[in-house]
C-alpha cells in the first residue's frame, strides 16, 4: 500500500488518463498494476483475457457486474472511463478489433440487473467461450 501511495504521489492525477488513475486507485491493489492478478490470491487476470468476455452480450454485462466494479463506490460516469481505458489496455489479442466502448446507460442498466450468483454466471459464460475456442482461466 505504501508503494501504491508513492506511485500516486509521484504521478499527479493530471498526468494519468482518468481511467488509468481510477484503475490504479480502485483495482490495482488486487488485480495488480499490469492486470496479471494473482493465482495464490485467486484474483483472475485481466491481461490477455478480459476481451474474451466482450464476445458475448452476457459477458460484456458480467464484467460490469462483478463486485470489484459495482461495489467500488464509483459512479456510472467513472466506471465508463475506467472500463473504456482498462479493457483495451489489458485485453491484448483477446479483444476483437471492433471494440465498442461502454456507455453510461449500459452501466446503469447492468447495475439494476445484478445477478444473485455472479460465480454461476461466470461459469456459464466461461463454458460458452471455451466452446468457441477461447482460453479462459478457472480461478
Ligand atoms: C479486493 C480485491 C479486488 C478489488 C479491489 C477488485 N477486484 Fe476485480 N475481482 C476480484 C476477485 C477475487 C475476482 C473474482 C471473483 C469475483 O468475480 O468477484 C474479481 C473479478 C473481476 C473481474 C472478472 C474477471 C474474470 O475473469 O472473471 C473483472 C472484470 C474485475 N474483477 C474488474 C475489477 C475492476 C475494474 C476493479 C476496480 C474498480 C476491481 N475488479 C477491483 C478482486 C478484486
Layout of helices and strands, plus pairs?
Blueprint: H1 2-10, H2 18-26, H3 28-31, H4 50-53, H5 57-65, H6 67-70, H7 76-91, H8 104-112, H9 118-131
This protein binds heme C.
Structure description:
The protein is mostly helical and about 140 residues long. The chain has one domain (about 15-130): Cytochrome c-like domain (Cytochrome Bc1 Complex, Chain D, domain 2). About 55% of the residues lie in helices and about 0% in strands. The protein contains nine helices and no strands. Helix 5 runs antiparallel to helix 9. About 25% of the residues are buried. The site of heme C has 20 residues, from helix 3, helix 6, helix 7 and helix 9.
How do the SSEs run, as a string of H and E? HHHHHHHHH
Helix content: 55-70%
Kindly report how far apart the N and C termini lie: 24 Å
Assign the CATH architecture.
Orthogonal Bundle
Rg over alpha carbons: 15 Å
The quaternary structure here is single chain
What small-molecule ligands were found?
Answer: heme C
- What class do helices, strands and sheet pairing give? mainly alpha
Determine the CATH topology: Cytochrome Bc1 Complex, Chain D, domain 2
- The count of strands amounts to 0
What characterizes the major β-sheet? Answer: none
Amino acid at each position: 500500500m505504501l508503494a501504491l501511495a508513492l506511485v500516486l504521489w509521484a504521478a499527479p492525477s493530471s498526468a494519468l488518463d482518468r481511467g488509468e488513475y481510477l484503475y490504479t486507485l480502485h483495482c490495482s491493489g488486487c488485480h495488480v498494476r499490469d492486470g496479471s492478478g494473482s493465482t495464490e490470491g485467486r484474483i483472475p487476470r485481466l491481461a490477455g483475457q478480459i476481451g474474451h468476455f466482450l464476445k458475448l452480450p452476457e459477458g460484456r454485462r458480467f464484467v460490469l457486474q462483478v463486485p470489484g466494479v459495482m461495489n467500488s463506490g464509483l459512479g456510472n460516469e467513472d466506471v465508463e472511463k475506467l472500463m473504456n481505458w482498462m479493457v483495451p489496455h489489458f485485453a491484448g489479442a483477446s479483444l476483437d478489433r471492433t471494440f465498442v466502448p461502454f456507455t453510461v446507460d449500459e452501466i446503469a442498466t447492468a447495475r439494476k440487473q445484478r445477478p444473485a450468483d455472479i460465480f454461476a454466471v461466470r461459469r456459464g459464460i466461461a463454458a460458452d467461450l471455451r466452446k468457441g475456442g477461447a482460453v479462459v482461466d478457472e480461478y
